[in-house]
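hiii so um. not sure if this is the right channel but i have a protein structure encoded as C-alpha cells and i wanna go backwards to a sequence. like what aa goes where. can anyone help
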C-alpha cells in the first residue's frame, strides 16, 4: 500500500450544525470545501473535534457522507468510527468503507475499564466490519482512560489492516516507540497540536489536530520548514501557534465554540455552534475570540 497519502497535515473536522443544532449538510460541505482549498493533505472526520460522543450514528453518517461527496477523492479521508459499543462502531465502520474512505480509526471503549484482550477484540471487530480499509488506533489516554501499551500494540499488529497510530498522549517518546515497533509502512500521527514539531522530530509522519482547521496555513508551513530542515524557523512558528492555542483556551466557552467563531470572523465560514453539554460562548468571551482571531491573521500575514 502506498502510505504517502497519509503523510502530512490533517485537520480534525469540526461538527457543522444548522441554526437548530442539527447536522447541516450545506455547512459540512462548506467546511470541507474551505479546507480542501487550503491545501491540507486530508481530513480526520468524526473524532473529538467532530463532537462524536454527543452525536448519533445517523448524525455521524450524515457528516461523513457530505464530506466525501464534497472532496470527491481529492483529500485523504480518515473516518473515526468508534462508539461506546461494538455494534454501532461496526455499523459506522462498514458505512465508511462503503463510502470509500482511505482509513478508519477508533479510540478504545470508555467508562468501563476493560482488560487489554477485550480492547483488542473491540478494535479487531471494528476492523473486520471494514476488512478492505486500513485501521488506525487512536491513543488518547488522558480522555479515554486507557493507554495503548506496547503489549496491546503488538497484539494489534497481528491484524494486517492496522496502519498505525494517531498518538495523542503527551509523551513524544510514545511516537518513537510505536514507530519502531510498527516498522516499515506503519504510519504514526502526532496528536497534540502544541508539539507538532517535536512529534515530527520523534518520527511522526504527519499530524492530526483540532486547531489545524482554524489556522491550517501555520501547520502547513511548519511541516514545510521541518521537511526542509529549517528547525529554528519551525520552532518559532510552533511557539506562535501555541500562543494562539493558549489564548483560545482562556475563554469560558468550549475551545470548539471559540474556533467556530474565529472561522466566522476570519474566513466567513459559518458552521454553527456546539452541542450541549459542551459550554457555549458567553459575551465576555468575545474579547478572547477577537484577540485570538487577530493573532491568527497576523501570524499568517507574516509567513513567507
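sure thing!! here u go:
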Amino acid at each position: 500500500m502506498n502510505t504517502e497519502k497519509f503523510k502530512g497535515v490533517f485537520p480534525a473536522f469540526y461538527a457543522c450544525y444548522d441554526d437548530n443544532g442539527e447536522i447541516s449538510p450545506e455547512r459540512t460541505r462548506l467546511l470541507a470545501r474551505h479546507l480542501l482549498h487550503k491545501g491540507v493533505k486530508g481530513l480526520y472526520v468524526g473524532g473529538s473535534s467532530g463532537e462524536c460522543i454527543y452525536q448519533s450514528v445517523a448524525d455521524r453518517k450524515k457528516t461523513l457522507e457530505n464530506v466525501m461527496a464534497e472532496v470527491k477523492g481529492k483529500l485523504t479521508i480518515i473516518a473515526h468510527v468508534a462508539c461506546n459499543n461494538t455494534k454501532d462502531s461496526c455499523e459506522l465502520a462498514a458505512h465508511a468503507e462503503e463510502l470509500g474512505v482511505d482509513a478508519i480509526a477508533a479510540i478504545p471503549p470508555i467508562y468501563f475499564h476493560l482488560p487489554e484482550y477485550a480492547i483488542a477484540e473491540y478494535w479487531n471487530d471494528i476492523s473486520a466490519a471494514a476488512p478492505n480499509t486500513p485501521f488506525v488506533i487512536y491513543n488518547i489516554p488522558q480522555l479515554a482512560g486507557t493507554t495503548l501499551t506496547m503489549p496491546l500494540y503488538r497484539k494489534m499488529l497481528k491484524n494486517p489492516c492496522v496502519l498505525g497510530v494517531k498518538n495523542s498522549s503527551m509523551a513524544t517518546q510514545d511516537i518513537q516507540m510505536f514507530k519502531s515497533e510498527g516498522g516499515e509502512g506503519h504510519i504514526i500521527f502526532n496528536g497534540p497540536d502544541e508539539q507538532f514539531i517535536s512529534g515530527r522530530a520523534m518520527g511522526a509522519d504527519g499530524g492530526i489536530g483540532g486547531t489545524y482547521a482554524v489556522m491550517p496555513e501555520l501547520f502547513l508551513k511548519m511541516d514545510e520548514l521541518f521537511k526542509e530542515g529549517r528547525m529554528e524557523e519551525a520552532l518559532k512558528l510552533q511557539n506562535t501557534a501555541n500562543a494562539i492555542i493558549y489564548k483560545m483556551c482562556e475563554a469560558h466557552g468550549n475551545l470548539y465554540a471559540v474556533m467556530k467563531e474565529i472561522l466566522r470572523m476570519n474566513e466567513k465560514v459559518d458552521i454553527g455552534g456546539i452541542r450541549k453539554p459542551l459550554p457555549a460562548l458567553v459575551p465576555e468571551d468575545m474579547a478572547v475570540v477577537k484577540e485570538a482571531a487577530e493573532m491568527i491573521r497576523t501570524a499568517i500575514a507574516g509567513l513567507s
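oh and The CA atoms of residues 94 and 130 lie 5 Å apart.
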